[in-house]
From TrEMBL:
The lineage of its organism: Bacteria, Pseudomonadati, Pseudomonadota, Gammaproteobacteria, Pseudomonadales. SUPFAM superfamilies: Acyl-CoA N-acyltransferases (Nat). This is [Ribosomal protein bS18]-alanine N-acetyltransferase. It is found in: Cytoplasm. It comes from Marinobacter persicus. GO terms for molecular function: protein-N-terminal-alanine acetyltransferase activity.
Amino acid sequence: MVSGYQAVSGLTIRSLEREDLPAVLEIERLSHSHPWSEAVFLDCFRSNYRLWALVREDVLVGFAIVSHLHDEAHLLNICVHPDVRRCGAGRYLLRHTLAQALRDDAVCMILEVRESNDPAASLYLSEGFEEIGRRPDYYPAGQGREAARVLALTFS
Ligand SMILES: CC(C)(COP(=O)(O)OP(=O)(O)OC[C@H]1O[C@@H](n2cnc3c(N)ncnc32)[C@H](O)[C@@H]1OP(=O)(O)O)[C@@H](O)C(=O)NCCC(=O)NCCS
């Protein structure tokens, strides 16, 4: 469901700014085996991208990045600081990105998730995403490559 989501106590969401990048890079480094570089984040500051900052007491504790192409929203990255996980922050941020994508006239959101990333997949599936395919060798991995599950949620 993409409307009527509730905030999590103490957390707010605002637009992500370039000034947030040091904190973004730190959370990214703590969260992924193969983190995005600063250059990749900088390349996301485009008119067809939506960048969201999850904030607690003025400190960045998470972020989400969505690109829009035609009527499709693509969730490219979502991360919550390890110290803030498992208290509803990720779901709050995801629901915000979905609601905003709907506002931006997207008809669906798609994303890729590593086959081994059960926490994230569990979050997406519990929000109504469905698996629509797989991309073999999509991600770099410790040894070789890892496949992605492709998930989609159609707004209706
Ligand atoms: C995925 C992520 C954003 C979830 O953030 P979070 O704040 O912990 O999520 P929430 O507390 O809102 O939990 C929402 C749901 O996610 C799932 N989930 C989260 N962590 C989980 C874990 N360790 N094991 C299993 N399920 C988990 C559960 O379904 C949970 O619902 P529940 O609390 O009712 O069981 C966070 O784990 C993260 O930043 N991971 C690293 C980055 C990443 O993998 N991003 C996704 C890339 S596709």
